[in-house]
Fold this sequence. Notes:
Helix 7 links the parallel strand 6 and strand 7. The protein is an alpha/beta fold. The chain has one domain: Alpha-Beta Complex (Spore Coat Polysaccharide Biosynthesis Protein SpsA, Chain A). It is 35% helix and 20% strand.
Amino acid sequence: MKDYKSIENLLKANNQEHIIDFLNKLDGDKKDKLIRQIEKIDFEQLQELYENTKREVEIKENIIETIKYSDKEKLSYEERNRYDSIGEQIIKSNKYAVVTMAGGQGTRLEHEGPKGTFKLDIYGKGKYIFEILIDNLKQANKKYGVTIPWYIMTSKENDEATRNFLEKNNYFGYDKNNIILFMQSELPLLSLEGKLLMGKDMKIKEASDGNGGVFSSLRSTGALADMKERGIQWVFIGGVDNVLAKLADITLLGMTVDQNLEIGSKSVVKDNPHERVGVFCKMNKHPKVIEYTELPSHMAEEVDNNGELKFGESNILCHLFSINAVEKISKEVLIYHTAVKKNSYINTEGKEIIPSEPNSYKFEAFIFDAFDLFDDMAILRVKREEEFAPVKNKEGADSPKTAKELYEKYWSRKEEKK
């Protein structure tokens, strides 16, 4: 009773009295679970996030400058050889790990289940996205004589389904001792009035805290400690849905080390000045990915002496971090961005309300907000047709159809070169 009274007081102090009504109607295991969930909520952080939704965005005078990059195709033989030798040695020394952010469901693909379990119709018989990524890792393992540890970030929503899928498929022949799943952290959703929403399962509705949450999740789940125990020094972090991602690129790795930097990333050149993509730049002397909506039109169109776009390096979510950088970021609180979404909820009478308009705030951190903690980063420009085939939408751009075409064309070119 004493514990329950403190929970009641906590909810009252944070203007969440409606949750007390739900608690009073519950008993046994359901009540205990809800109490444990409430205990874990950082109400101070949540209140701050809510207050931020009411503030007008402060327009700062940001100094936006171009960022240096190296074009993989234009590296000299000596540069390429030097970078590749450094990168290869790190991987061969078992100091390299891969993190795949796979917390999403295949909703936009109209696929039921985790996005990694989507089957891409390649070569007539098809391959699951997880299978494609594992093939990529296996090739690297064979080439460098190691088994690269693979960390998969799931969500509360898809963790069990992901584990069951991989187990059912015997991890597609990968050593399961080197596949480590860890769960992404979540933040409660808030109504537009700042109230917690209750779901049909009689739990407070929460949502994953964005891909920027990968760092704190690595830390809180023990995955970062596992990396350190294994002697990992470099970590590649990418999304699950790019079927042409090179998960062990020795050129990017070697170049980042050679330039004495702690973070690196890959870019592809923009299709046109106004392509709707985030681009790399320096903002206020720190590396940054700036959204296309934030880049002034005249800057988006600027070209350099070679006729290339000054702000033409698109972010494709292929990032490299030293283990020290991962640890440093994991201790920081990144900026949270607010999205207004439609979310159903249960009212205090127990009726499900399905809104017709956006009715709640979702809070997300983005991985590239971590770049601001560093003075510089290595950028390696790669060919879009060789390294970027995302599977995001059911039809049109970045769909299974476009990914299949890019994937099959890439591997047929590789075969022709043999």
